[in-house]
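Look at one record.

>
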Amino acid sequence: MLRRRLTQIGLTLWFVGTLCVTVSGSTRTVGKPNTSCPNAQYKSISAAVNAATPGDVIAICPALYPEQLIITIPLTLRGVSTDVKGNEVKRVLLQPTLRNVRGLPVQAVITVMNTVGVTIENLAIDASKNSASGCNPSLAAVHYFNASGSVVNNSLFGAQLATPQDCYGVFPDNGFGVLVDSTASGPFQVSVENNSIHDFNQGGVQATNAGVTVQVEGNRISGVGPSIPDQFGVFIANGAVGLISRNLITEGPCGKLSQTDCLLARSEGITLSAVGDGTVVDHNIISDTQSGIEIMSGNHARITNNLISNIDLFDGIDIGLITNSLIDGNTIFNVTPIANQSCGIYEISGAGIVGNTISNTTVNDAYCGVTYVTADQLGPGNYYNTLYTTLNGDLFPNGFPPPLEP
């Protein structure tokens, strides 16, 4: 446990170090006319951004700003509070009518591109007034592209298309709270911390491509459950590395959907697909999804100390082609109905899965506790109210035992 915590502290310090920028600047205050905003120098955020130099702080007083922003130098956008008749007001709402700008492939309320050290904090960012439909262009509340920085203490919502469409095979799909990607080699580091993220189509936070590292920590991410397209609380893919910790993620149950329909429109709490080495998923609370954590592929990952509940289609943790990784200390309960043959942890039997350790798992109320493959190491666990405590998938090539009470 001490080693795990030291590892996390080291990664956190690394993020802090990489996100620091050595420039410093002045504070430029933005306030709307006829609102309480002492010493306002600008009537719009755009005007302040256009006048800014690297390292400036844009202090934004409470009001509604119908502005779509592109940031290309190190800046801090910070919502500040004002006093209105003795009451402190702190809501700074960005709610533009989004349009395609500069030929960018993503419509976003705030686009940060080709720079470092951009911090966005204390803002309510609404992407609902968008013209995106189908699979292109993509839509996000905040988009970091070839860029580094922090997204802290914001409310991010409204990244929903008027006409959602299943963009399966058109990566990265559409509708994100925070989207982090790159076309350059990087490195790029983005910290997404302590935000409220909700009302999105595809993902609360999505990070893709080698050279991208994200710290996703302390957020509250709320989806709508099975939808078109599939929905993910956090999605890390294509070589990106993530430190995903202390998030509260909820999606939604299958409800009245058939098992087949729910499969096609499922929601997953945290999904890792071809992630970079060293990805960590630790101390998250995930509930009301069809799969709590899905690991499609990766190497040297750590999936530890997560609390997962109310899974109604797949498993608490689904493990695909992953190698040399630790899955330890996870607690999983209410993985039902039993007839689905769903387990606390399910490791797909097949070639290439090797070197993983699954240990100290607690499962209550499921078809089985852990399904594993021979090439991995299964440590001790606690299994309650399961038809089968553990199953070696390699020994059941033609199907598992029936989900029937003895």
The CA atoms of residues 27 and 57 lie 5 Å apart. The chain has one domain: 2-395.
